[in-house]
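EI: anyone free to look at a 209-residue chain?
SC: sure, send it
EI:
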Amino acid sequence: MGRLKILLEGSRGEKEEETAAAQSQQLQQPSACIICCRNIEEDTVFELARPFSLSCGHSCCTGCWLHTISDGMKNGRAPTACPEPSCPLALSLTAASALLDSASLRKYTHALTEALLRQQKIVRCRDCSRLHRVVSSRPSVRCVCGTSICARCSSVAHAPVSCRAFNDYCIYMQKNGLNSTHVSAADAPIIRNLSQCPKCGILAEPQYE
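SC: here you go
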């Protein structure tokens, strides 16, 4: 899980981290949970009543945090945001590991991974399933296994062809009993010129007489 923890460490910039750290030093430990308004004490014997916060210092009782995380995962919301509405921070895997048991942490890891895949912040290698952070300036990511992956659609790297055109090309190849694992610049004109038959929907190269 170490590699995944590095990839999914959080969703904020360095300046936000510095600001949050400074704010947390200035904030005093609140006496009440900002969700349920019940008293929270560090030395209480009731574990669910103990405070928990991110580096921002916005404290809630552990019970409310666990409920918020569980509710978020059920409704497809990940990562779990700080309960303070104006706070930009979210629960990273590092923070979650201090709060969740092993089974819940696995579920949160899965939910966070799927959310970042949908947001195109990470891609999964189609051959070995390793996760890679997406760099906006690069159209593709090269995995250590040797596979090059499109940073937008997670298919095999296909620059300079667009994702939509490449998907059409893959359908065309499959309909014709062929496979394609690599696209070069020489293939681009062919892919762009594919046309869909209005009757059967099969993609094919236009034939001119």
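EI: The chain has two domains: 2-118, 163-204.
SC: 👍
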